[in-house]
Amino acid sequence: MYKAAHFDGYHSIPGVWDEMYLQNSDIRAHYQKVIEYLSQESPDDLGKKEELAQRLFMKQGITFTVYNSGEGIEKIFPFDIIPRIITGAEWDLVEKGIKQRLTALNLFLKDIYHNQFIIKDGIIPIDAIYSCPHFLREMYQVDVPYDIYVHIAGIDLIRDEEGTFYVLEDNLRTPSGVSYMLENREITKRLFPDLLPNCGVRSVTEYPNILYKNLQSLSPRRVSNPTIVLLSPGIYNSAYFEHTTLARLMGVELVEGRDLVVNNQKVYMKTTTGLQQVDVIYRRVDDEYLDPLVFNPNSILGVAGIMGAYRKGNVAIVNAIGNGVADDKAIYIYVPDMIKYYLNEEPILKNVPTYRLNNPDEQKFVFDNIDKMVVKKTNGSGGYGMLMGHAASQQEIDEYKLEILKEPRDFIAQPTISLSAAPCYIQGALRPRRIDLRPYALCGPDGIEIVPGGLTRVALKEGSLVVNSSQGGGSKDTWVLT
């Protein structure tokens, strides 16, 4: 037995929910089998598994891009070999909460692009909507198939020191990371082939099939085999590996804007045998680059005229255009109110307390307590442009305050929450590192389906709360037990 070599250095972080250990240092029941297995492995064996994982990631080209790095374009996605484990009961709560939340968000998007009852009834201020750069007037009164705006969502969850799940943010435009969820599971099968069935781990591999089925169902033409394409910005996009992976797993064409053309308000794909009409586009191109005739005229990533074909109902686009208004961090504050308004239900998953910096009283409170706050841009992503108050210098804080005062609507603040910690295999021993969870939900005509798991992101730097890969984070396989 090699237990001492792995566990002697593992000490739970005070005041932080530990996914593996109870407060009395007993191992939680759902981690028991994994820990017993790891205890029988020598440090050398675990080191070899870690090396194998890195080789497999390198061989398969599982990468992401850091735009502001001086180290080159692509990096191998860091992977921790110890899985994050969630019980069936915990998952039931998460699943119900996400379904409730997405149902309300879809109703909200339909409402604000049509009757705007939620504004007229005073639930959300009109200026909160109209000041959002992603509220697109071009989508007003545009009907979308089955009234589904959010076909694919990645909902970021964290746990506080009591173990309570909170929604940190909603990703409703072009959520990324699902390919890493799928590849993490494939790597884990190679590393621990017997452990997954012995622990009763639920499968995530159905995701591409569910997505493909949903895409098929959106075709405006009633044909048995509609033409579906995945529209990518191209090889230099940070998620290009994911685009290629999903296109391959679904058996659809991976295209760029130059591969498509609009004729008579219909979208066609250029092929060696001529033009082929496209029915459904799973796009990974942001709204502002999608149609140079309507949005950014300098864009070469999109397709001229695609918005006209979309309005006409001749092509389905996934996710719907204009979704950004629903995942704007200034609108996030109102999601619990949306749930109560549209569904007449109490939210199952809580929001993190959030302060609007265009509100003078809330701004003053945040400035007075900024050392306990995380300040974010309302339309930022990837961990860029954040201020972690507890780790910032006075100069950084003063400079950030000046930025806030220029455009207060563009910032929100949240109290620093101690993300839960999970065991990671680092330099030959288990160490606690902070984590979050991004489950992926697929909305189709038959309802919302969530594969049991998601992408667990890890802040690999000791003491860090930032899990984004662009900021030095990694990931681990997420096990949901039956």
TrEMBL record:
Classification via InterPro entries: ATP-dep_Glu-Cys_Ligase-2, CP_ATPgrasp_2, UCP005522
Signal peptide: none
Record-annotated Circularly permuted ATP-grasp type domain positions: 83-459
The name this protein goes by in its record: Circularly permuted type 2 ATP-grasp protein
